[in-house]
Amino acid sequence: MKQLLVDDVGEFGLIRRIMHDFIFRPELLVVGPGDDGAVYRTPGGYDQVISTDTMVEGIHFTRKTMSPFDVGYHLAASNFSDMAAMGAEAVGFVLSIALPGDLPLSWVDRFYDGLRACCRKYRVNLLGGDVTGSTKGLILTGTVTGMVPEGKAVTRSGARQGDIIFVTGTAGDSAAGLYALLHDMGEEWPSLTVRHQRPEPQIPLGILLRKAGAHALNDISDGLSREWNEIAKASGVELEIELEKVPLSEAVRALAERVHRDPLTWALNGGEDYQLTGTISPSDFDTIKKEMPITPVGRVVKKPGTGVYVWRHGQRRLLQAKGFDHFEK
Amino acid sequence: MKQLLVDDVGEFGLIRRIMHDFIFRPELLVVGPGDDGAVYRTPGGYDQVISTDTMVEGIHFTRKTMSPFDVGYHLAASNFSDMAAMGAEAVGFVLSIALPGDLPLSWVDRFYDGLRACCRKYRVNLLGGDVTGSTKGLILTGTVTGMVPEGKAVTRSGARQGDIIFVTGTAGDSAAGLYALLHDMGEEWPSLTVRHQRPEPQIPLGILLRKAGAHALNDISDGLSREWNEIAKASGVELEIELEKVPLSEAVRALAERVHRDPLTWALNGGEDYQLTGTISPSDFDTIKKEMPITPVGRVVKKPGTGVYVWRHGQRRLLQAKGFDHFEK
C-alpha cells in the first residue's frame, strides 16, 4: 500500500486529521480552535504570560536523534518550561508547522501524539495553529500562554546579595543523552536519551519556588553557564558557584567516565535540561529544601556586580556563557 | 564595504540589534521581552484571544512581490486581522523567525521596521520571540494575543436566518495587486499592490461590528468563497449572495478589464484582503451602515443549511470554497 504523504491530503485535509483531543482544561475555554482566534478566560487576579519556541529539523533535531513523537513532546515541553521559569502555569498552546509536501502523514500523526501527550500531562489546551508548506525541512513553532498571580511572576532580574543559588533535579543529562545518540550509544543510556527526547517542564517546581519566595528563576535551556550569566547580568549581581556541588546524575558521571569527558561540560555548556536554576534567601531555601529535589550550588556574593565566578579544585575563575573549558587538575 | 550577514553577528547579536522600540502600550505591560516569558495584564472583565499565522518565503511572498518592510508589516497585519475577525483588539505579539545565515542583516532591519510600524499603528506590544537558523528560505511565524469583553467574541458560528451578509471595504484588491506584481505591472497599480504588500487589519471595524451586534464575523484571508462557506458550515445556515453587489474598487475593475479577467475571481478566490465579512440583523445593519464602509451582499436564507448560493445574471448556483469559475454570460 502506498504511504500517504502530506501533499496527498493538503492543508485542510491535514487540519481535519489532527483536530481532535485538543482540550485538556475545558473550564478555561470559551471558543475552541477552528475560528479565526481561540478565546479563553483566566480567573481574575492573574497576569498573562507568553513565550514562543521553535524547532528546526537539522538544527534542533534530526530523524536520528528524535522520533516524531519525541519532536512533538519536546516542542510542547520546551515551551511549557518557559512558563515554569516564570513561576507560571501553562494554559494554552498554539502551533505553527511548516512541512515539506513529501513528508509521510504518519510522521504528522505521531508528532501530534507526542504533542498531545505533553499537553494532556500538563493540562494545557491546544488552541489552534497554522499549517503551511515548507520548501525544505520541518519548522515547528509553538507559542504558550500561561497565568501567574498578579505581580508574582519570577523574573531573572530579582537576585539579591546573600541569596542561595540553586539547581533543581540534575543537569547535563540532556546533553549527555544527545552525545550518546550521536555516537550510537543511545540504547545503553536510556535514562539520558529520554531526558533529551522527552524533557519534562518543571511547572510544579516553578510554582512551589514562586510561592516559597524565589527571587530569580530561569529554566536551563541553554546550559547553566548561560543561565547564571543571564541572572547575574539582569539582576546586577555577582554569583559564586562551587562546581563540585552542581547536581549530576549517576548516568552522566558514568558516561563521562566511559568516554573520557568532563561531565560538567554537559551541565554548564549543554542545555535543554529544562530543570530550573535561580536564587532564594537562605531561610526560604531551608524551608523548601525538603519539599523538592533542589541543590544549593553557590551564593550571590555582591551587588552591584555582573559576573559569574566558579570554584573548582581551590581555584576561582570567571565563567562566561558557554565558556566552561574545565580547569587544570 | 562588505555587507553584513546574519551569520556575522549570530543569534544573540541579532537579538541585541532588534531589541528596541517594542512597547507601544506600556500600561498593559508587566515584564517586557528578554526574560523566559513576557508578562502582561488585561483589565478585568475581558476574555483572552489568541491566533498564529506564518509566512514562508517562496509560498506567501518572494523578494519580487514584497520588500522586507512589507513582509514585516504584512505578517503583523495578517495576525492582527484575526483579532479583528473576533471583534477583539490586539494586545501583544510574539515572533519566531527562521533565517538562513547568508541573509543580509539589512533585510532583518527593514523587516523589523515594517513589523514595528504595524505594531505602533495598532498599539500592540512586541513581547519577544525566538530566532533560529533555517536550512533554506525564511519562515516567519507570528502569534498575537488580544482581548475582548467577556463572552462577546464574535465567532463564525452565530449567523441567524434573516441576517444581512455584509463585506467591509472592497474585496479582490490584494489578489489583483499580486497579479499586477507578478506580471510586471505593479508600478501602474499602486492602490492594488499596497493592499497586497501592506494590508490593514480592520480592528476598529471589528470592534464596531461587535458592539453593533454582528452575529458572525470572518476576516477575508482566504477569499470570500471560502469565508462564506466557513460561516455557512459553522453556523449551520444557507447563504444567498448577489454577486453584483460584492464591493469592487475602481482599480480592480480597471485592471480586470485591461487583462480580460473577471474581477470577481480575485474577490471570491483570491484572499489576503483582510477586510471583514459576516452577518448581522437587518435593523442593526441599518443602524451601523452610515458609520463605516460596509456593503450588504446577501442574506442568510435558511437554517438549518450548509451551502452558499450565488446569484449572477439571473442564475443561482452553488458556490464552493475557491470554487468560483465565473458564470456563462
Largest sheet of chain A: 7 strands, mixed
Structural class of chain A: alpha+beta
Shape of chain A: globular
Oligomer type: homodimer
Q: How many strands in all of chain A?
A: 13
CATH C-level category of the largest domain in chain A: Alpha Beta
State mean pLDDT of chain A (0 to 100 scale).
95
Low-confidence parts of chain A: none
Largest interface: A-B, 63 and 63 residues
Please give the radius of gyration of chain A in angstroms.
21 Å
What's the number of structural domains of chain A? Answer: 2
Can you tell me about this structure?
Two copies of one chain form a homodimer. Chain A is α+β, with helices and mostly antiparallel strands and 329 residues long. Chain A folds into two domains: 6-149, 2-Layer Sandwich (60s Ribosomal Protein L30, Chain: A), CATH 3.30.1330; 164-318, PurM-like C-terminal domain (Phosphoribosyl-aminoimidazole Synthetase, Chain A, domain 2, Alpha-Beta Complex). The first copy, chain A, is built from ten helices and 13 strands. In chain A, helix 2 packs parallel to helix 6 (203-212). Chains A and B meet through strand 2, strand 3, helix 2, strand 4 and strand 5 of A and strand 2, strand 3, helix 2, strand 4 and strand 5 of B. Strand 2 (38-40) of chain A pairs antiparallel with strand 3 (46-56) of chain B, so a sheet runs across the interface. Chains A, B: Substrate binds at residues 60, 272, 324. Chains A, B: One of its GO terms (molecular function) is magnesium ion binding.
Quick tags:
homodimer; 329 residues; alpha+beta; 60s Ribosomal Protein L30, Chain: A; Phosphoribosyl-aminoimidazole Synthetase, Chain A, domain 2; 7-stranded mixed β-sheet; 4-stranded mixed β-sheet; 13 strands; globular
